[in-house]
Amino acid sequence: MVPAASLVAFLLFASAASAASIDSPKRKSGLWDVEVSTPQAGGTPAIHMQQCVDQKSDDLMTQDAPGMEKMSCSKNETRREGDEIIHESVCKMDGSTARSRAVITGSLDSAYRVDIKTTYDPPFQGMREGSTAMKAKWLSPCKPAQKPGDVSLPSMPKMPGIDMEEMMRRAKER
Asked: What is d(CA 159, CA 162) in angstroms, rounded to the nearest whole number?
């Protein structure tokens, strides 16, 4: 079982990386309400989180996410097709090749959706394929006590907020 903090970090990385495009659009700065679901997780409820975002935290997620140094990507392309942003990648990690396609719809200023489908060859940690759906909407400016990159998990009240910048700094030190 993947610890919740690790899953959240991966999902945030996946969503931020998928949102990058040719023109590098960024999410509007402020507090975003994000719901992430993975249908193949067998009845696991969607993860619901709130994330304080600014230009630096989005850049941090796409460039310095934990585990990126272990990946080698032969394809990492983003293009616009009508109202959609399409991001496709082919990356090797831990002996498996992951082929991903993310489709981003909506507005990175108010509300957007990301649908990610990935296949693994050979299977990665027993998975041949996976999909993730993420819905996000902008709520307000970040709360006074929050700093960009901070994540709170309203659906897990006993789990403290996550300082993504600190978590990534510690991961790099390992």
From this structure: 9
Stated pTM of the model: 0.75
DSSP state of 43: S
Helices (H), 20-132: 55-63
Phi, psi values for residue 71, rounded to 5°: -105, 145
Cα–Cα distance between 9 and 30 in angstroms, integer? 19
Give the 3-state secondary structure of residue 147.
coil
Phi, psi for 27 (deg, rounded to 5) = -65, 150
Helices H / strands E in the chain, number of each: 3, 9
Segment 140-161, tens digit of pLDDT: 999 998 888 888 887 666 555 6
Strand runs labelled E in 7-110: 30-37, 47-53, 72-81, 84-93, 96-107
Question: What are the angstrom distances between the C-alpha of 80 and each of 6, 11, 106?
Answer: 30, 22, 12
